[in-house]
Amino acid sequence: MAARTITLHAFRAGTGKTTLLANIAVSLTQQGKRIGIVDADVHAPGLHILFGLPNPRPTLNDYLWDEARLDEIVARFQDDRLPHEIIAVPASSQLDDILRMLREGFDCSLLYTGLRALGERHQLDYLLVDTPPGFHSEALIIAIASNLVLITLPPDEQDLAGTLLLLDAIRRRGEPPTFLLLNKLPAQHGPYGESLVREARARYGLEVMGSVHYEEGVAHLASRGVFALQHPQHPWSQHIDQVAARILDFDFQPGILP
Ligand SMILES: Nc1ncnc2c1ncn2[C@@H]1O[C@H](COP(=O)(O)OP(=O)(O)OP(=O)(O)O)[C@@H](O)[C@H]1O
Ligand SMILES: [Mg+2]
Q: Across all residues in the chain, what is the average pLDDT?
């Protein structure tokens, strides 16, 4: 069976897409699943930083420009605290590559082919894909081809309003199963978190896959590692485990990836 592709997306930058993706990847790996992570946020790459991975050429960019093979761009994250490696595909952090991406974009059909081949070659259970926030056509094309889309949403009226537009943009192109992932909720959110969940249903017709609070420890780590790997028993990491458990329980349907 092909890997299930889960895309993390958001209306604005800085909502915690990359942080949640990295922590969910660790949690799923701790539970024995084979995970691939792909940094398709080619305008502001960063996934390699959380995993302390080097970022040499060739990267995903070269593959998407048809200038490198898939096996040349795969990195492996290994750690004694994990039962096995995580397969990682970093994007380039070279300025010229980022500018070229903004100018030229990339061939989405190559991305589709690459995701499918990556899942098959490494026998992955789940592929987690980070995207450029907002309305970049590449991000929307990745989202609609996914088996599951998680939209990270912090409790801020600008994000709440913009997420409606983002959902509209996705739904004009396709109907991937889409859920919200609330992030950076005030630690003692209690009824506030619950009212956001109700509001998500009323405003977006969307369910919430998980609610994650703002955690000082995550902010202090400042992307210099993956919190759930360093503190697996911490209550914040257990919230991440709950999100991972919802993903494991989710009834995935075949997607439109070729
Ligand atoms: N739940 C949280 N508690 C505290 N800090 C958090 C939390 N989630 C994310 N952060 C912090 O917020 C900042 C932005 O997070 P991150 O880089 O994951 O956002 P992003 O959505 O990937 O941004 P971009 O769209 O620009 O790539 C980081 O410094 C990260 O450590
Ligand atoms: Mg990011």
A: 93
Q: What is the C-alpha to C-alpha distance for residues 39 and 41, in angstroms, rounded to an integer?
A: 5
- Distance (Å, rounded) from C-alpha 167 to C-alpha 181? 14
C-alpha dihedral (193, 235, 11, 199), degrees to nearest 10: -10
> Domain spans of the chain?
4-249
Distance 39 CA to ligand 2 centre (A): 9
pTM of model > 0.85: yes
Pocket of ligand 1 (CB under 6 A): 10, 13-19, 41, 44, 46, 133, 183-184, 212, 214-215, 218-219, 222-223
Answer yes or no: are the C-beta atoms of 92 and 59 closer than 8 Å: yes
Looking at 3.60.15.10, 3.40.50.300, 1.10.10.10, 3.40.1190.20, the CATH number of the domain 4-249 comes to 3.40.50.300
